[in-house]
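User: Round two. Same drill as before: sequence, then structure, for each protein.

Assistant: Same drill it is. First protein:
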Amino acid sequence: MIGTLALGLVLALALGMLAQRIKLSPLVGYLLAGILAAQPWWGLTDDPHVVMHEFASIGEVLLLFGVGLHFHFKDLLAVRKVAVPGSLMCMALWTGCGALVYHACVPGADWVAALIFGMCVCVSSTVVLTRVLEDSKLLHTPSGHTAVGWLVMEDIFTIVLLVLLPAVFIMPEGASKAVFCADDLWSALWGMVWKLALMVFCVAFLGKHVISRVLTFVARSNSNELFTLAVLTCALGVAVLSAEVFNASMVFGAFLSGMVVGQSKFASRAASDALPMRDAFAVLFFVSVGMGFDAPMLLEHWPLAVGTLALTLLIKPLSAYGVIRLLRRPGSLGVVVGTSLSQIGEFSFILAALAAGDRFGLLPREAVNVITGVAIITITLNVGLFRLVPSLIRKMDARGIGMPAADNSAVPEPTETKDRVIVVGYGPCGKIITKILNKYNIEVVVLEMNIDTVTHLASKGIPAMHGDARLHTILRMAGAEHAKAIIITAAGAPAAEISATARDVNPDIAVLAHTTYMRNARNMRKQGAQMVVSGEEEVALTLSSMLLRGLGATEEQIQKARAENREILTGTANSSLLNILN
């Protein structure tokens, strides 16, 4: 057993690092490590798949505990107008398409297996989606929030399925496959509802009166080891309780336990201390999935594999794009969400493994093998496909495809009596900049990605638009062709891309930007930006000024040193806004 575990971890580490080096998701490396570890040439006496499956079960529980830990309904509510209807429509469509693909490619297949297969392939990987969004700097953008909210709905859908399977399917004595208990369906569903409601109540009660107090008591010991152990005990304890007492899925119990801890004051510490252990066991989960993969079987059932691959790489992103456009959202959002969902991952494995296990026997082994093979292919391709998203959005923008209608009624026409300045972002910095410009009788148009902020500004009579400042269409609607300057106030905004687009629209426009790093500031100055403020530079100047003041320097000496240090850091002095506008 130890030899199998060590082999799986070594291969996962090596192939995971290789995948990371070639800009792929480490999940690809973990799955390939499982495929290699299952080969007979290692000479292991134990069945590697059986041994690793035991560790993978812990990985499943901790994986769902982590999902619950970071699950917040407020994240879903923020994008509910798109994520909720969009995900429900698409999951229904994808499930139906998956069922049709399975029924067409598997001779004699029953519709129950076909529908379960469709449900397995309609959900995407949490790990992959968050990773590609983070690498593309889109995780904390409106598009990223919508994709994450969409994924939250898929997670809820999967958890409901994990709970429903034991309630609506029973295994007759001596049978090899569970049957749908249609005669007693409503009573079974009602029993499941009250049992789960009781379970949620018990977990919430335990969380408030037991788990919280236990974690508080352990935290006072100032021992990281004991706190990590306490969190893992909560996760595994509630999971086992849900299975033994309430006959529910262990992963559902782990999800509830994660939600309880996530809503407590220990959420951040649990994430930093206990989740590394979750990640280690989650690696074993993916390695175990790879061990169950059979390449010759995948080739034998190539029609099903090709059909599933087409569903995942073509139908899922195209339909997601179509639904988002149907909901009257910009095409750029549809491209980001659709591309990020064009893969299948861990929840597909969990659901497929449960349906194909001895408890139900609803899916044949070849169907699970196809899901694993398609997951490996789509996860590998997803990172590469996502790199094409920015150029695709720019091409769509240039041709006016999928762009929002020109509803710029809140933006006045440029006048000859006032200079116009476009302010990108209305955070604390943008708010102050807008107030100052209005005071000096300069016309301001705010570009903001938060629709609630745009609505609030419109109610106060401040010209504001909802849109991505990287898009030519949005800048033209904001009047960039006649604007004197564009001020990028958000440090996290893609300032270089916004600057390039603004100069395409108006070559004479002045660019003033706020960036985080000095290297970005230097590059933008080389590209012609008139004024660039870097967070690193300003922090260095402020700290040096405070140090000089503490050492007794006069204000004149401090200002002189500040000017010299700025010259050293930036190589130039920033122009004044008054000179730029004149």
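Second protein:
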Amino acid sequence: MEFQKFLEGNVFDAYEYFGVHMEGNGAVFRIYAPNAQKVELQGDFNDWEFWQVEAGSEPGVFVCRVPNVKAGMYYKYRITGRDGRSVMHCDPYGMWMELRPGFASRVVDRDYAFRDQKWMKERDKNYNKPMNIYEVHAGSWRKKEDGSWYDYEELAGELIPYLKKMGFNYIEFLPLSEHPADCSWGYQNTGFFAPTSRYGSPLKLKKLVDLCHQDGIGVIMDFVPIHFATDDYGLLQFDGTPLYEFPHPDTAYSEWGTMNFMHSRGEVRSFLQSAADYWLTEFHFDGIRMDAISRAIYWNGDPARGVNEKAVDFLRNMNAGLHKRHPEVMLIAEDSTDFPKVTAPTEYDGLGFDYKWDMGFMNDTLRFFQTAPVYRPYDYHKLSFSMMYFYSDLFLLPFSHDEVVHGKATIIQKMWGDYDFKFPQVKAFYTYLYTHPGKKLNFMGNEFGQFREWDENRGQDWELLSYPLHDAFHHFYEKLSNLYVTEPALYDGEYNSDCFEWLEVDAADYVTYAYERRALGETILMVMNLSDQFWKDFKVGLPMLYELEELLHTDWEIYGGHTRQSDETWRVEDQPHKDKPHSLIVDLPPFAARIFKVKKVLPSKPKTLPLEEES
């Protein structure tokens, strides 16, 4: 590592210099604390005595070489500031920590022989491939009978078969970096390079990612480059001064009670860039979702306070550097702002993300489905509005953990009406999601209709699958999810406006919609009724005379509905409707969605002209 580049904020591998590194039968410990009066080291290797760490050749760097160090050993630093106050700290670049409430860092064995070479060679950014993401909190997807966590390797054995069955081809973990409080879900970090010990060792995490890749499942890591936990053993006042955070409280404290990183400092930039690179390099993650990007774009996330130019510059530089080092991985922004060019390349003044969460789509869609049917005609275009701006960025459609906590209610609970009305609506809701352009993300439990809000201390309510409507919905979700990843028209070319066309988006009185998805010579047709009325022989104009097959109907009996799969409840006619030359005539039960696939295009019958026109 070039130390001057570290100070300038242009380093992406600072973890290869700082932290602990094995040398012979011992190890070298390096820590950066430029304003410290004294740095001391203690650990298993010296019976927890305090050894003074000497200043190294580079300014602000303290170095200690220790014999007889083995992987798994615990250690801590005691840092004395210039004011004489001494504080115990974990290693900012430590790659393993003890389980909370302890905070000692641990020496790690980094050697692991990955067997995912085929996956790594073929992976890319998935622009024209399906990306069906299952968002998971590792500690509460399932619990063991005694209430304990599965470790990383055990989780792989349970989770991978479920993902493959349900049609998910990517998993996104809530942050796995070490954090002191379970209730923070990993978003308030103390160990930016340390996989949480809740679920085992770093080697077990590597095994989990490796096994996912061998089974064709990508893995995305949630990463937090905006703020850090205030525990005094972490980064707070690290060398007796605000080394990582802003010095003034107006900008130092975040809305979550954490400390905001000062992205204008070169050391902070190098630290965060290196952390991102570490997860991608060391663990073979296929992408990182960066949390709370709006708080970097604007001062404290408030557009009224103006753009934080230094933080925006940091995002551009980090993303450009990560793309250069890992051209095949995905950088995903959780950003609720309308800041321009979030997914544009940095060379065109963009932020350089590959995808952006479409928070507007998420909010508008949920609000619409919460609305009573009698008011839906007035909100009709709230549901179609997303396609007015969809091509401005590369969007990912998220229904994440944030939507099922803190009194917001779960996805199925948000649906209007009582228990029996919620199920047909949530089936239509997800059919709309999976046929709308954009990559998909859904949080665990949503796929079987969990009513209880997510609690990080409890496993999901899998016992709900013993109830007929939940079981039927789970099977429906499995079918829909697998349709998405196997039908090219639902994912290929989705960021090309030529691949989408509204067929009906002017039927507010009926609250019905219809559209086509097209790609690679294939066409998928979607028709949806979000009213509480049954529409018999509803007409949808078609651009060509199609021979269709029905792929999915949310009201089929096998999925808890009332329509037999064998019933003939639709037909295509060679008759015009509105501005289209042909028609689909279809029965639409209340809150129903139907997906059709074009088998072939039929020749139109010659039209007979009126006698006066013939003459």
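The mean pLDDT is 95.

User: Perfect.
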